[in-house]
């Protein structure tokens, strides 16, 4: 019997190739996209779960800031017995690290001994015991190990720091899970760090906040239990002693990712899209299967006459639906495996799908298979079993189920609502990105070419500095060049470096919180930044020592009508004084999604040019390319063996919009998917409806209706529902767009054109899908459809 | 006696009125009979055959089949009864397009849960008897109408029924094919199979030993 069913099944697939392909591919694509999104969401929800004592790990915060004072952790371990373990992470060092000829600029972190007992990374080589206990002993990540040592064992290998005779010894390699909040390339102990850079010792006091601090609490201890003890540490140690009111609090590590790092809205949206897509795909599949099984009602009638019971028929259809959904499931997994690398690249994610490693996915797959197989089997089975024998022998299944059509149409409406919301969302995100890209940055984004100096790669700082100086002077002398400037940052790379400033002669309470940037001669001139009043840091022989240039926003917060010549003290009332010499416009020094901040440019006269990060060159109008060539040539000549890495002034700024371009791509892809799935649903429904109405069409044609008129009649019914979907989609999309735009300091407007375009696209696609069916039906010869037997 | 119909009525409600499809039908059929039911379109021939074949129910009256009161039987029991004793032949043949001749013949046996070897023997026997061994691997669409109906009759016979119900068995056939099928029915009847056929062809009706005339659902 099974063999018989299988044979029938295969033959009916071959007979109805198109339907079968549409059906399985649709479900397969649906399953693949569901799994991709589900993997992403799952990955996000299980962040940091690899840590064995995750429940008890807390991140210490001073107020809202995760940067904490260097003395804090030793004090906590000493004073609070409930704090059983902990580690600081010092993440401010970056230098050249080499192994033989392999050299890269690397970020090194210094941590306490507790690091590997707080975070239980799996070790591939070495062990967590005393891994960094020895001075100059380091633990590296798997990626780092592969980069430097390939497939060789990394243990005991020596890594050279800068060009010095200082070597680090690899004591362990860890495989950092992709969903770990705390990651590193290379870690060493604080003792090692202090040996390499002695300045570290100076900033571990009760004022500076250079470390992140993690603690492990005793089982059963809650942060509230030690709250008073924490505040005691603040009162007794934080400066000014006794008066400091900093709120020292503990953020659970297991919440850290979801609260701070992850975009909760995005995760919720993705989860909804995932469930929506699999839901639509399943319902479509069931619908198409039912429509397909209608065509076989006669076969069922014949079988019943010849002795088939409901049970045997049920077995037959179950075999079929379980087989088809199994094929779709396999197809879905194949698609997933093919698409996952592309998705990973797009999202810079590291998702992997191995159901045998994580059995949760086996369960999910089985669940999908079960739901799809059982539902798509049992619903037609009901039809088959219930159908009146004499009716089914005539192939007649359409007796009296008009009520059900409302629920079928509502499904189409839901699908098109999703599609229209996603399409218009794609357009809006694109519009916002364009808006941000084209917003006037208030600096010259056409004629400025920036060279990244990458001083770390040169062995001798002294000669390198001279070479940089020489290049800059030669460039400045060129007739194509207007001016040049060294700086520590350029728009898009301004450091998160803030401090408090006290205006002289003003009341104590009115302090100014400024973001700081250090630049060299001619910075404003080179970048074409307009001075609203006063002067900048021109190369004019005057000393710019202890001067500052503020932006418009800072002046507004300061509230002084004529600020030029006023003095600010950094850190305290008696701190270093800076005289305000100029005011610049609010330039886009960071992505315009962020609020404009009060910004201060300080003049810095570097003794060594290797301490700068960038050399910016302003070309005369229309000579940019000549200047690029000139720069390349100079680099080749003066710094042989190095290649010039250069970009234009707004390139780094525009990189800040990468995140949104990613979101745009995802929504774009999923709206295409939603459209495809909706079309499948529409296809199934229109096939079903036109089949029901063939006789009516025949009668109308006999009575003089033209093909065009029949087409219009059939399409009108479907378009009505798409229009209805459009009306529901617009307010939903509008609300979602407003919500999304709230996150931007500078935002585009939600225009009616977005909706019009999305609606038009949905309508056009729906029309094409339906017409495919209705055109076939409308062209049928009336004699063929009106013949009764 | 094979079957007995007593005062059978069947109707449908149409516009608040009862429209009678069958009206007071009384019929007794002995084993070995060959009955032709005649009448114009819409006279109730097919309905009567469907009632006799238990494919359709009726609203009033008594129906005894091999001394079993069909009107009192449950659906399942009734189904077992017709599956065991009745074979059907249709005007449109009703072969399954996706199955070969061989598989179409085998299909009813599958539902009887016969062993593979038994099925093989019975199908081979039937193919042989109807002279269609050479066509066993063809699909219905590759056969002529007459050949298809031949397979239809063979399939009706394969489970060795006592009664064959044939609804316009030659309706879709030309006269030559038609004669062949009727000759076949005659032979079967000679072998002892009871046959009831519905037809509006006088010539075909003459093959029957007894003719029943229907008009508007009533015996005339």
TrEMBL record, chain A:
Gene Ontology molecular function: any one: transmembrane transporter activity
InterPro entries assigned: ABC3_permease_C (IPR003838), MacB_PCD (IPR025857), Macrolide_Exporter_MacB (IPR050250)
Residue ranges constituting the MacB-like periplasmic core domain according to the UniProt record: 21-232, 416-626
Protein name: Putative ABC transport system permease protein
Organism whose genome encodes this protein: Pricia antarctica
Bilayer disposition of the protein: Multi-pass membrane protein
Keywords: Cell membrane, Membrane, Transmembrane, Transmembrane helix
UniProt KW Transmembrane helix keyword: yes
Subcellular locations according to the entry: Cell membrane
Automatic annotation (TrEMBL), chain B:
CDD domains: ABC_MJ0796_LolCDE_FtsE
SMART domains on file: AAA
InterPro entries: AAA+_ATPase, ABC_transporter-like_ATP-bd, ABC_transporter-like_CS, MacB-like_ATP-bd, P-loop_NTPase
Keyword Lipoprotein part of the UniProt annotation: yes
Positions of the ABC transporter domain: 3-220
GO CC terms of this entry: membrane protein complex
One annotated GO molecular function: ATP hydrolysis activity
Keyword terms: ATP-binding, Lipoprotein, Nucleotide-binding, Translocase, Transport
UniProt keyword annotation of ATP-binding present: yes
Pfam family, any one: ABC_tran
Highest taxon, organism lineage: Bacteria
Family from the record: Belongs to the ABC transporter superfamily. Macrolide exporter (TC 3.A.1.122) family.
Name of the featured protein: ABC-type lipoprotein export system, ATPase component
């Amino acid at each position: 019997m099974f063999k018989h069913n299988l044979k029938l099944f295969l033959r009916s697939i071959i007979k109805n190739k198109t339907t079968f392909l549409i059906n399985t591919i649709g479900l397969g694509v649906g399953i693949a996209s569901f799994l991709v999104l589900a993997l992403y969401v799952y990955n996000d929800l299980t962040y940091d779960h690899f840590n064995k004592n995750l429940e008890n790990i807390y991140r210490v915060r001073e107020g809202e800031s995760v940067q904490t004072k260097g003395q804090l952790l030793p004090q906590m371990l000493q004073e609070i017995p409930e704090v059983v373990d902990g580690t600081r992470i010092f993440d401010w060092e970056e230098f050249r690290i080499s192994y033989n000829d392999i050299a890269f600029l690397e970020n090194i972190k210094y941590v306490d001994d507790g690091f590997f007992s707080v975070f239980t990374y799996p070790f591939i080589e070495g062990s967590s015991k005393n891994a960094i206990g020895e001075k100059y002993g380091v633990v590296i990540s798997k990626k780092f190990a592969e980069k430097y040592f390939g497939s060789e064992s990394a243990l005991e290998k020596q890594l050279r720091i800068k060009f010095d005779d200082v070597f680090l010894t690899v004591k362990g390699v860890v495989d950092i899970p992709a969903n770990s909040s705390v990651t590193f390339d290379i870690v060493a102990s604080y003792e090692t760090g202090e040996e390499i850079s002695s300045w570290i010792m100076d900033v571990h006091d009760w004022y500076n906040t250079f470390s992140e601090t993690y603690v492990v609490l005793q089982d059963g201890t809650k942060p509230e239990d030690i709250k008073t003890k924490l505040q005691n540490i603040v009162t007794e140690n934080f400066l000014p002693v006794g008066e400091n009111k900093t709120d020292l609090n503990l953020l659970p590590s297991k919440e850290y990712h979801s609260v701070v790092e992850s975009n909760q809205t995005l995760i919720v949206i993705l989860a909804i899209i995932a469930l929506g897509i699999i839901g639509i795909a399943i319902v479509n599949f069931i619908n198409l299967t039912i429509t397909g099984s209608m065509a076989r009602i006669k076969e069922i009638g014949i079988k019943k006459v010849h002795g088939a019971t409901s049970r045997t028929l049920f077995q037959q259809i179950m075999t079929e639906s379980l087989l088809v959904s199994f094929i779709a499931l396999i197809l879905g997994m194949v698609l997933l495996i093919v698409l996952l690398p592309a998705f990973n690249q797009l999202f810079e994610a590291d998702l992997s799908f191995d159901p045998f490693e994580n059995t949760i996915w086996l369960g999910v797959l089985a669940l999908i298979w079960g739901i799809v197989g059982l539902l798509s089997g049992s619903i037609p089975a009901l039809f088959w079993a219930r159908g009146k024998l004499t009716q089914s022998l005539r192939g007649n299944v359409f007796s009296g189920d008009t009520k059900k059509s409302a629920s079928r149409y509502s499904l189409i409406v839901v699908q098109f609502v999703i599609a229209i919301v996603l399409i218009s969302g794609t357009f809006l995100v694109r519009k916002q990105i364009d808006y941000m890209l084209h917003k006037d940055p208030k600096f010259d984004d056409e004629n400025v070419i920036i060279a990244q100096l990458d001083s770390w790669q040169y062995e001798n700082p002294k000669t390198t500095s001279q070479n940089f100086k020489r290049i800059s002077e030669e460039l400045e002398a060129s007739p194509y060049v207007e001016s040049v400037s060294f700086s520590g940052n350029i728009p898009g790379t301004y450091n998160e470096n803030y401090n408090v400033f006290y205006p002289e002669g003003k009341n104590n309470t009115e302090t100014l919180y400024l973001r700081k940037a250090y630049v060299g001669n001619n910075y404003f001139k080179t970048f074409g930044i307009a001075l609203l009043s006063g002067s900048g840091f021109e190369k004019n022989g005057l000393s710019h020592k202890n001067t500052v240039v503020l932006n418009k926003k800072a002046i507004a917060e300061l509230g002084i009508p004529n600020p030029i010549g006023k003095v600010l003290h950094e850190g305290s009332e008696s701190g270093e004084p800076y005289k305000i010499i100029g005011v610049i416009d609010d330039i886009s020094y960071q992505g315009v999604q962020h609020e404009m901040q009060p910004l201060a440019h300080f003049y810095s006269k570097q003794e060594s040019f290797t301490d700068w990060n960038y050399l910016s060159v302003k070309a005369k109008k229309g000579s940019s390319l000549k200047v690029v060539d000139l720069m390349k040539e100079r680099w080749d000549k003066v710094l042989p063996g190095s290649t010039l890495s250069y970009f234009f002034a707004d390139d780094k700024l525009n990189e800040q919009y990468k995140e949104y371009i990613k979101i745009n791509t995802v929504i774009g892809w999923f709206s295409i998917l939603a459209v495809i799935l909706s079309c499948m649903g529409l296809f199934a429904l229109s096939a079903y409806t036109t089949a029901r109405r063939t006789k009516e069409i025949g009668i109308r044609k006999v009575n003089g209706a033209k093909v065009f008129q029949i087409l219009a009649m059939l399409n009108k019914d479907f378009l009505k529902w798409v229009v209805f979907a459009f009306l529901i989609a617009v307010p939903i999309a509008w609300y979602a767009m407003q919500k999304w735009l709230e996150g931007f300091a500078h935002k585009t407007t939600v225009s009616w054109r977005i909706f019009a375009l999305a609606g038009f696209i949905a309508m056009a696609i729906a029309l094409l899908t339906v017409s495919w069916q209705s055109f076939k039906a409308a062209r049928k010869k009336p004699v063929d459809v009106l013949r009764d037997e | 006696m094979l079957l007995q119909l007593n005062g059978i009525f069947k109707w449908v409600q149409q516009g608040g009125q009862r429209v009678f499809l069958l009206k007071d039908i009384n019929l007794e059929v002995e084993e070995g009979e060959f009955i032709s039911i005649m009448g114009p379109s819409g006279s109730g021939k097919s309905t009567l055959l469907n009632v006799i074949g238990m494919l359709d129910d009726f609203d009033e009256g008594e129906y005894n089949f091999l001394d079993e009161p069909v009107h009192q039987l449950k659906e399942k029991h009734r189904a077992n009864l017709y599956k065991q004793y009745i074979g059907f032949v249709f005007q449109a043949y009703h072969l399954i397009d996706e199955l070969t001749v061989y598989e179409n013949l085998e299909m009813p046996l599958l539902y009887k849960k016969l062993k593979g070897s038994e099925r093989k023997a019975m199908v081979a026997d039937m193919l042989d008897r109807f002279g269609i061994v050479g066509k066993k691997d063809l699909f219905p669409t590759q056969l002529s109408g007459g050949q298809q109906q031949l397979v239809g009759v063979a399939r009706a016979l394969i489970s060795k029924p006592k009664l064959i119900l044939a609804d316009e068995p030659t309706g879709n056939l030309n006269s030559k094919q038609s004669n062949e099928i009727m000759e076949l029915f005659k032979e079967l009847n000679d072998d002892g199979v009871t046959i009831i056929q519905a037809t509006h062809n006088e010539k075909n009706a003459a093959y029957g030993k007894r003719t029943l005339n229907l008009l508007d659902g009533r015996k005339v």
